[in-house]
Amino acid sequence: MKQNYDVVIVGGGAAGIGIAKTLDFLNKANLKQNENAPSISFCVLERHEVGASFLRWPKEMRFISPSFLSNPFGLIDLNAISPDTSPAFTLDTEHPSGIEYAHYLKQIVKHFELPVYEGVSVAQIRVAEGGYWLETLASPQTMPNKLHAKAIIWAGGEFQHPKNKPFRGSEHCIHNSSIKTWTQLSGKEYVVIGGYESGIDAAIQLSKLNKKAHVVASSPTWEKSSADPSLVLSPYTKGRLRAAMRTGLVTLEGNVKVLSVDRVGNKYHLTACDQDGALKRMIHNQAPILATGFESSARQISHLFDWRLDGMPLVNEVDESTLHTGVFLVGPSLRHDQHILCFVYKFRQRFAVVAHTIAERLGVDTSPLDEYRRQGMFLDDLSCCGGGCTC
């Protein structure tokens, strides 16, 4: 294990392994042309194991974007993190579970022999001359406790950082990220707070177990239509929701904001208000399910970023911190103006942008990344994004 790197990637999920695969592709392509060509030295640090966040998904949760072996037709699998791989081919399934997708990521690490180090926590990142010092909690026998990098790529993900305190009394609720399997809930009727993908999925899974689910959401996402699934429910979820609604077990209530939850004996008292400000109160026998989303993991290194009004890291046109040169962001926290790059098929298009920037600064030939552009995975012009559909 070396102590000095050109790049250290923090996080071994879809974003971390995806950008590592991009750097690896660039290095191998250049060395294939010239064995003396300069390359980028890098490693990935993962505090648990590759795909750890996906392994924590509820057993029943699935990808809402479909995997299909379309690579031979020139269309990359929507859930792939590189042009030459496909979860559909590796997993033989269309909507992978978290466990299945973690397996896909691990297969990429193994097959391409990516330099990934598991069980390594980053305790601190300090600005230093010529780059950054990363202090780790790893055993000195495994790796040095301090690593120096000219550049850092933050790929910490979000699932392990739930928004579990959105209102007073939220400690009485159960965040959906803590559910290992929906079969662990013994009650017959639940209220779900939050109407985006995770909230509707919770209601669907509960209905499959013959349990009633009442969804309370500040925005009626199920009524909205947009070509951007970051803003509304995906077609996959809408289809499942329609089936669940036909059972009579799922009810939806939009334009209602939960203000507090109080536990009174064995009951849970919810106080909410509608869009006109009128208060309403609900009493339930079971702890409410929180489906309120996640915080950006970049909060762990908040001193290295400036922050947007929506609570996400502020980056420049090459996904680099506006405060510190050489600190890059990849993954679902990535935002550019009104563009939300929260799904794998969105943020993966920016891997080559980051790789190209780093390679240029290090004097490494960037021409092999033209293959990523040809495959639609080098999106450096966001003006083409956001268009609607005619019908």
Secondary structure layout plus pairing:
Blueprint: E1 4-10, H1 14-33, E2 42-46, H2 52-55, H3 87-91, H4 98-112, E3 116-118, E4 122-128, E5 131-136, E6 146-154, E7 174-175, E8 189-193, H5 197-208, E9 212-216, H6 235-245, E10 250-253, E11 256-264, E12 267-274, E13 279-284, E14 289-290, E15 306-307, E16 313-314, E17 327-329, E18 335-336, E19 339-340, H7 344-347, H8 351-362, H9 370-374
Parallel strand pairs: 1-2, 1-6, 2-3, 6-17, 7-14, 8-9, 8-14, 9-10
Antiparallel strand pairs: 4-5, 5-6, 11-12, 12-13, 15-16, 18-19
Helix pairs in contact: 1-4, 1-8, 5-6
Which key phrases capture this entry?
2 domains; 391 residues; single chain; five-stranded parallel sheet; 23% strand; FAD/NAD(P)-binding domain; alpha/beta; 23% helix; globular; 19 strands
Characterization of this structure:
This protein is an alpha/beta fold. The protein folds into two domains: 4-160 and 294-384, FAD/NAD(P)-binding domain (3-Layer(bba) Sandwich), CATH 3.50.50.60; 170-290, FAD/NAD(P)-binding domain (3-Layer(bba) Sandwich). Helices cover 23% and strands 23% of the residues. It contains nine helices and 19 strands. It has helices spanning 14-33, 52-55, 87-91, 98-112, 197-208, 235-245, 344-347, 351-362, 370-374; strands spanning 4-10, 42-46, 116-118, 122-128, 131-136, 146-154, 174-175, 189-193, 212-216, 250-253, 256-264, 267-274, 279-284, 289-290, 306-307, 313-314, 327-329, 335-336, 339-340. Strands 1, 2, 3, 4, 5, 6 and 17 form a seven-stranded mixed β-sheet that branches. The protein has a five-stranded parallel β-sheet with strand order 7-14-8-9-10. α5 links the parallel β8 and β9. The longest helix has 20 residues, at 14-33. The chain is globular, with a radius of gyration of 22 Å.
